[in-house]
Amino acid sequence: MLGRVPNRHIRMSGTTAPVIQMRRQSQRADDENAMTCTLTLTRPDDWHLHLRDGGMLDVVAPETAAHFGRALIMPNLVPPVVKGADAADYRDRILAAIPPGHDFTPLMTLYLTETTDAADLLAAAQSGLVTAVKLYPAGATTNSASGVRDIDRVVPVLEAMSEAGLPLCVHGEVTDPQVDIFDREAVFIERVLDPLRRRIPALRVVMEHVTTADGIAYVRDGGDNIAATLTTHHLFINRNHILAGGIRPHYYCLPVAKRESHRLALLEAAISGVSNVFLGTDSAPHLDSLKLAECGCAGIYTAPNTLACLAQIFEEQGALDRLDGFVARHGAVFYGVPVNSGTVTLEKCDAPQPVPSPRATPDGMLTVFDPGVPIYWRVADA
Ligand code: NCD
Ligand code: ZN
Predict the structure, then answer these.
(1) Which is catalytic among the residues 46, 86, 282, 324?
(2) Residue 24, exposed/middle/buried by CB under 10 A (0-12, 13-18, 19+)?
(3) 40-87, pLDDT tens digit by residue?
(4) DSSP notation for 228-256
(5) Active-site annotation holds for 370
(6) Protein residues whose CB sits closer than 6 Å to any atom of ligand 1
(7) Three-class SS of residue 51?
(8) CA-to-CA distance for 286 and 301, rounded, in angstroms?
(9) What's the whole-model pTM score?
């Protein structure tokens, strides 16, 4: 077990930089929280994040900025972030919500609609304002009503993006009511994503928050122009966690968690070291009053404890040496940006750490993800 390994340095194959340093600290017998070792990672990136706006933004943005160097900011506000000018304004509001002293860069996305102005989109990308474009099938998830109904209508924009090398981030679920909700990702690959990629092979695509073995298999066999993001929560929960023994709205998100065999496929991919699979938390805050309603919102707030949860599960899999690639390197390489120069340090405690308490926002309380298993790791204070 890592907790008892003294003075160990792990090097990633193919690089000379020590990416993970673990050292045993002196244990204090009188303190059950005494730290036993630390883990220093390259400052990570979150390649799929919802920050919302207004009072919620002010609460959640500092929590991501405390741990992450960059995050790809989802554009599903109401109204959505469609034009370059919308993204510039939203980026300013995000930066205003980040406390001084945090080294954090929001990377902006535009929300693709059937009437998106290709010239505006390309200008926003060329100026460096926008990093990617987001495809929501209309009605697939939270605030997706302005999304795409007929993929044929956006093919000219996608062709222009392909030429410009601008990645398309995809919410990969069909919305056909005939398709069972647990099958919507696999059917999306077959009906929409694969035909689209055959039509525009040079288009760079990120299949976001993959939840199925089918999605993992598709991305693994998909060549250099496709990548997958995985969330933290889908590595911990399966559909039983949502539904067995009572319904647990705080575990409801989209795409909905699938059966255990799929969770295991995601976990295997996360720890595999495969370079086109990386973290996108999909941390998606909703007020408790909206989660615990007769028709509750989809989304799980994981930003505060994502790194602690990931350290725990990678350690249990004997894969801590792969964590740096998953959270800090693979995504940067795919998106063509430098790996962050800073670090973040986690410490392993002798006792399980409490689930972060609900956050107070101006409009109500916000519950943080409970992974349902003991987490011994925490991010060390800077
Ligand atoms: C996200 C949200 O709340 O904006 N919800 C979710 O369940 N993940 C939207 C999304 O990414 O699907
Ligand atoms: Zn999302």
Answers:
(1) 282
(2) middle
(3) 999 999 999 999 999 999 999 999 999 999 999 999 999 999 999 999
(4) EEE-SHHHH--HHHHHTTS--GGG--SSP
(5) no
(6) 50, 76, 141-142, 171, 253-254, 282, 284, 298-299
(7) coil
(8) 8
(9) 0.93
